[in-house]
Amino acid sequence: MLSRVGDKWSVLVIVELASGVRRFRELQRAIDGISQRMLTLTVRRLERDGLVTRTVYPTVPAQVTYELTATGSSLTHLVKQLADWSLEHRDSIGQSRTAYDAQNPDHDIR
Question: Which of 26, 43, 72, 102 could staple 22 via S-S, CB 3.0–4.6 A?
């Protein structure tokens, strides 16, 4: 479960859905850099884990929406804290990585 919740795309989907119901394209536009395939996999995994509900409306073309379940909603405050922490420390972590890479040019850690 930690690998799912800690996954970059899952965190971003959960944060976006914390604001309410979203259609697939709305999610894709809101999450910078996610491909259609990766978004599809991510929401399916979150649905399988019981964190997201997928609703298909019988329209032409079919309209699909996603929303957090009660379990998914209970996770949002933790995920938002993680996202806020990462934004707050992004610069210092980047500087640490640059310094480490300069001191260890032959490493393959990424």
Answer: 26
Q: DSSP 3-state assignment of 53?
A: strand
Q: Has this prediction a pTM greater than 0.85? A: no
Sign, CA dihedral 45-48-54-58, equals positive
Residue 66 located in a structural domain: yes
SS (H, E, C) 61-79: CCEEEEEECHHHHHHHHHH
Q: How far apart are CA 54 and CA 47, in angstroms?
A: 7
The CATH number of residue 85's host domain is: 1.10.10.10
Domain contains 99: yes
Looking up tokens 């032959």 gives 106
More confident residue, 104 or 4: 104
